[in-house]
Amino acid sequence: MTERELRALALFLELPAERELAPAVRARLRGHPGRRRAAALVLAAVLVAVAVAFAVPPARSAILRFLHLRGARIEYVDRLPDVRTAPLDLGVPIRPADAERTAGFRPLASDLLGPPDAVSWDGGLLWYRYGRTRLLVSQFRARERLDLVKKVVERETVITPVTVGGEPGYFISGGRHFLYLAPGGVVREEPVRLGRQVLLWQHGPLTLRLEGDLSLAQALRIARSFG
Amino acid sequence: MVGRPQDETALVARARRGDRDAYEELVRTYQGIALRTAYVVAGNAADAEEAAQDAFVKAYRALWRFRTGAPFKPWLLRIVANEARNRRRSAGRRSALALRVAQEPSGEAAPSPEANLLGAERREQLVAALNRLAEPDREAIACRYFLDLSEAETAAALGVRPGTVKSRLSRALERLRAQLEEDG
């Protein structure tokens, strides 16, 4: 068998004839919600542009139980650690076209939200900001160690297990919840924005986190648009 | 094979700014190869058409991530192949190649020397052996020899690094030869 024979075989194979796809694609793009609608969706979100610096060793509060996602853990603690506020820091701004090369994985994008207003990389997580941080989405490729730990107090915070595209996730609402990011294995500053809900979910090798003032239905709709 | 249009970069730039006429031109340029790539991966004409259409819609929405000046075709084919693969997986079936019912070579007024290389029996033998290969092997051969994609385009369609296309293809050809020998 030669490569020439294979090329000749192509002449006899059943392959679809060229069809005009442009009208159907155009019609579907007319139905695209566009950025204005996406912006309206996130407009209700509240921005509290404060971050909380890591100030307390994790051992200070007892872990009562925990929930796992790939690369992430939600810990129920008896009390939240004391924290002090610090400016919001989502890493270094990067061009959207450089996101894949910088992060080392193919980032997911939302059909619903369209392009983010800003993209940044903090060394462990890729951050998308929509509507001047009214909505934040971060994503990372889960490794063996934990990249993300969230601390919650059960009586104050409601955690709803959800499914996004057949994969597990958790919607966290209610009381204050604290997130500790640990890129490179070093626990460092922790952004937390009060009065916002968080949806954490897995998508293949990636773990995503959506944060905003969103209902469960809104958060799920946005999460499902990432692919 | 469709070459890269001279003004592709300009068309992509216009499409990124929301110019749908410009995007429609890109769709028209690549709809043929998108359909054929989707068909090779999905193994079904209806799924291929849906996958190609969905891929064009997704690509439009993802244009902001496209690296300016990069070739559009490999980037698009990666999305097309992913869409087609998802459809094949959800349908839970294998893709398979088939010979056309009318066995004159397509698009030829008179048989070319290439077409004369293969008798009907040999064609059937080759297609049967190809269909017994694992999907990644068959896809690699189909992209390179049946769709005439470049190495970079084949890599994009297969979802592998360009550097691994040669080795993937070489292993696929070895297995195809072994299969043919087995068939006697």
How would you summarize this macromolecular structure in one to three sentences?
With 227 residues, chain A is an alpha+beta fold. Chain A is built from five helices and 14 strands.
Shape of chain A: elongated
DSSP strand (E) fraction of chain A? 25-35%
- How many strands of chain B? 0
**Biggest β-sheet: strands ordered side by side in the sheet of chain A:** 5-6-7-8-14-13-11-10
Count of helical segments of chain B? 9
Question: What Rg of chain A do the Cα atoms give?
Answer: 21 Å
Q: What's the quaternary structure here? A: heterodimer
Number of helices of chain A: 5
Task: Average the pLDDT over all residues of chain B and give the rounded result.
Answer: 85
Biggest interface, chains and residues, is: A-B, 35 and 56 residues
Measured between the Cα atoms of the first and last residue of chain B, the distance is 34 Å
DSSP strand count of chain A: 14
Please, what is the average pLDDT of chain A?
70
Largest sheet of chain A: 8 strands, antiparallel
Class from secondary-structure proportions of chain A: alpha+beta
Share in β-strands of chain B: under 5%
Helix content estimate of chain B: 55-70%
- Briefly note the structural class of the backbone of chain B: mainly alpha
Give the termini separation of chain A: 41 Å
Low-confidence stretches of chain B: none
- Give the biggest sheet of chain B: none
